[in-house]
Amino acid sequence: MPALLSFLAAPAAAAVATPTKRKVLHILHALRFSGAEIMLKIAAPEFQRQGLELHILSDAPPESSDYTATLEAAGYTVHYLPWVASQLKNLLAVRRFFQAHQFDVIHNHTEQNFIWYSLAARQVGVPRFVHTVHSNFAFTGLVRAKRAAYRLVARRLLGVQFIAISASVQATERRVNFTPTTLVFNWIDPERFYPARSAAERQQARQALGLTPDKLVLVSVGGCVESKNHPAIFTALSLLAPELAARIVYLHVGDGHLHAEEQAYAASLPLHAEVRFLGQLQEVRDVLIASDIYLMPSHYEGLGNSLLEAQSCAVPAVVYDALGLRDLVRDHHTGRLVPPTPAHLAAALTELAANPAELDRLGQAGYQQTLQQFSLKQSLTQLLALYGPA
């Protein structure tokens, strides 16, 4: 403990910034085809136009990352500093790394280790440290007390600025962790996710997937992990009337450690609907514009990025009334927000299947919302302001 407390002493003299470019480091765990990494790739051209030299630090072993080459191609220099069992060893290694590179801004995206990164940054005189909270961390008990204490130390003594990616995350941080945050919404790439440009493009996308015009196509995109709650979709499909279910093709895009288990569960149900597992896809838009309804029964999200992408393609959504989803869907306005049960999911599907005009209206409303509230330009303007003046 005395060794750690010494890091709270006055910081070393601030590193001298380079005269031409500011060095910005983003800290993440394993670099995967996932929300934060994709957003950093999208933002790279604008960051570079603003004169930033871009770096990423992963605190996971290199072999656990599968998105490194993509980020390097976008202009990031990628570093690895795998976390080990000894926190003191981690702290000293991170301090040496920060001192060697003299970053002007450090932007942390990890929850587990953020206090150690902010301590090291303070000690070597990094001018700006920003921490984004990417999910609803509703800690309880001793964990809640510890995390709240970390946040208090980070804000009051280490100068950390906290960002929330949604109103739900902002409320959770304030209510559970007693932490004020700045709201900076997630963003998507408007050049990759946009509605079908014509009926012909949509039809072509459906034909490429072998989908006939009479099919009602449902889709979800996301990793096969507990929080995504994909089994609720299969249960809901089993509750549909057989004549409706026979019209349905459900497309699942994504992979993860529960992939085989989810496939087995779907196979165990007496489903009249067709279910296809498409695995991980680099380009998702063609699947989205071929689909009629987007489904997301997550237990919680920070902000549902894959839902945001679907809405950007004007795909109407049916989602659970959960943190991070109700930020994007107002029931009967920009989609359907249903109580978190498969029965309610099935009821909403039954209702919408009989009303194509309502599907179109909800899809267009969701699309307009993304244009107005989740613009790449607006979010990056806010973020760059937090990075401070050049």
Short description:
The protein is an alpha/beta fold.
Describe the structure.
The structure is a single chain. By secondary structure, the chain is α/β, with parallel strands linked by helices. The protein contains 16 helices and 13 strands. The strands form two sheets. A seven-stranded parallel sheet has the order 3-2-1-4-5-6-7, sandwiched between helices. It folds into two domains: 2-187 and 375-387, 3-Layer(aba) Sandwich (Rossmann fold), CATH 3.40.50; 199-373, Rossmann fold (3-Layer(aba) Sandwich), CATH 3.40.50. It has helices at residues 2-5, 35-49, 68-74, 87-101, 114-124, 141-156, 167-176, 199-208, 231-239, 242-245, 259-268, 285-289, 305-312, 342-353, 356-373, 376-387, and strands at 22-28, 52-58, 77-80, 105-108, 128-133, 161-164, 182-183, 216-221, 248-253, 274-279, 293-296, 317-320, 336-338.
Cα-to-Cα separation, first versus last residue? 37 Å
Shape: elongated
Order of helices and strands: HEHEHEHEHEHEHEHEHHEHEHEHEEHHH
CATH superfamily membership of the largest domain? Glycogen Phosphorylase B
**Mean of all residue-level pLDDT scores:** 93
User: For the largest beta sheet, what order do the strands appear in spatially?
Assistant: 3-2-1-4-5-6-7
Helix/strand/pairing class, anyone? alpha/beta
Q: Can you name the CATH architecture of the largest domain?
A: 3-Layer(aba) Sandwich
Count of helical regions: 16
